[in-house]
Amino acid sequence: MVxxxxxxxxxxxxxxxxxxxxxxxLHAACATGQPVLCAYVQDAALQDASGTRIADWAQAAxxxxxxxxxxxGQTLFMLSGPTRLSVPALAQAVNATDVFWNRRYDAxxxxxxxxxxxxxxxxxxxxxxxTGRLLFEPWAIRTQxxxxxxxxxAWWRAARNLPEPxxxxxxxxxxGKNYAPARTLTLPDGMxxxxxxxxxxxxxxxxxxxxxxxxxxxHRFIENAxxxxxxxxxxxxxxxxxxxxxxxxxxGQISVRQIWHAIRHAEHQNPHLTTAAEKFLAELGWRDxxxxxxxxxxxxxxxxxxxxxxxxxxxxxxxxxxxxxxxxTGFPLVDAGMRQLARTGWMHNRVRMVVASFLTKHLLTDxxxxxxxxxxxxxxxxxxxxxMNWQWGAGTxxxxxxxxxxxxxxxxxxxxxxxxxxxRTWVPxxxxxxxKTIHIxxxxxxxxxxxxxxxxxxxxxxRALESWKNLPK
Length: 473
What we know:
Blueprint: E1 10-13, H1 24-31, E2 36-42, H2 53-71, E3 76-80, H3 83-93, E4 98-102, H4 107-122, E5 126-130, H5 152-160, E6 192-195, H6 211-224, H7 229-232, H8 246-250, H9 256-269, H10 274-296, H11 318-326, H12 332-344, H13 349-362, H14 367-377, H15 383-394, H16 409-416, H17 421-426, H18 457-469
Parallel strand pairs: 1-2, 1-4, 2-3, 4-5
Antiparallel strand pairs: 3-6
Helix pairs in contact: 3-4, 5-10, 9-10, 10-15, 12-13, 13-15, 14-15
């Protein structure tokens, strides 16, 4: 451990990149040879609201990172206070020569980092802004006219013509580089620095936090599920047909570069995996595409990208919204998905599309209600992906599903959960029904403790189509 008389330290700011390996900011800081102070900022203006699932998941990620750093003689600190003020104050208090971070792409984060950069520059501190969150920077892929792509397939084609993302960085050697601030460290009022505890908060069932858990999931997916990914990814009754990596990606416990190169390595070792691997890599590309949208359209989560939908006569029916949120709509696949979300903080991707279509079209409820609910409930609540997916599902965004594409929750249930296994797991009051009736329980002759459908699917679909046709074009 380095004491206060040691050489001046460098400061590493961690923000949703709670890992040691392939962390460009941490790697570059350790390469200076100076003592390293690792910290994240608790800034209410830039953090997810307390009580959201993602806030708890991020707290668990911090605790796990603190444990990993502690095992190598390093300490993780939490700095409280507004980022714009607290980071320059801390850098000045410890006489830091350099500050390292992995850059952010949301408008509030960019604004805060720009202000911090300017303040640090005035103090004579050098800022190093690294690339650590995406495969490609949001401005890296443009049309021949220099404009952002509006169609994913064209964007992805252009992305695949670029050089591969660089290989992930190894975990840096951080032993003997810990910087211990003086206990008498003076910071302005309202700001303080303290060590992060290593005890994580309680998590939803089925989830384990940490880099090791993330890589174990990746290994499990490659070994057991990648070969069948293209055919199994939509099966709600096969949850392990997907990677289950999104919560770990969200808080940076595994990087997309690590995932990319692990998949590519598996493909090179087993050429028969090529089709499945490309399909999975495109899902990583979808995340980059979402952040390109968020970077160029900061109000992605609040504004219809297709302006005609500003005139959509959304229904503000509190009872319908509550039934959807609580998994009490009377449609088994919808209710199973919403209950899985409530219990675990995650939902199968195919089911996400079904419940989004049901809310926005059969119930004609503003997509922003769903976007906010998902963001509060999901462990993988990603500002760009969540907003883009909801606009895609509602038909209001770029490259969106057309409004007239309305998922029938019964047909989707019969196709992607044919034996009702997923439904039986999350809607146990229907478990005794046969494989056909479980998708249409209102036709059962049994007495069920299950609600009747809250909407007629045919009438709801016609209402949605008429509302769309009558929009001013």
